[in-house]
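Work Package 3 committed the consortium to producing structural models of liganded targets before the mid-term review. Because experimental data for this complex are still outstanding, the team generated a predictive model from sequence and the ligand definition alone, so that downstream docking and mutagenesis planning could proceed in parallel. The input record is reproduced below exactly as it was submitted to the modelling pipeline, together with the SMILES string for zinc ion.
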Amino acid sequence: MKPSANKSRKIILFPLGGIEESIVHSAAAFLENLHHFPFKCVVTNRRPIPIGTLDNQRQQYNCKQILKYYIKCCPDNCFRLIGITDVDVYVPVLKYVFGLAQLKGNCAIISTHRLRPEFYCKPSNKWLFQQRLYKTLLHELGHTVGLTHCSNRRCVMFSSTRIEDTDKKETSFCGTCRELFSWYLNGI
Ligand SMILES: [Zn+2]
Ligand SMILES: [Zn+2]
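The resulting structure, written out as tokens with the ligand in place, is given here.
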């Protein structure tokens, strides 16, 4: 894989809503530092949470609607568009989600709302928060490339229904998912 050979090998990350920009930069740096990662990561301007996506009763944002909105915003010269927000997000069948991606699609949305230890009444821990962020990001990016959930609890593609699931995972793909990831990428 040749990183710079194709201009579409660029991933755009953007702050979605009021999230601290430094969090998005740290996510971009994580991806770029992955071994053999063939993309350039660019952080772009803050973008708004689309109007009408807040469910007043739940006091949560509909992640599917946000994703649908931003799917249309992915520039042609970019491989994937990933929004990172700090608001609480859900999809109608679930109480909450950590993120959502279009399978084999161009866009993903990640929420940090439930990644902070403080959310679970635990002391603040920047390292733990960042590990959770990186795992969620890589997981959703994996979905956009076509990876589905993995049965290996240590693999980043294992489905996280609770934060404990995320904490058990590595910040990387298992051997099988890594191979599939490269395979799907080379099929682009
Ligand atoms: Zn998933
Ligand atoms: Zn796996």
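Reviewers should note the following from the model. The helical segments are 21-32, 63-71, 126-145, 163-168, 175-186. These observations will guide the Year 2 experiments.
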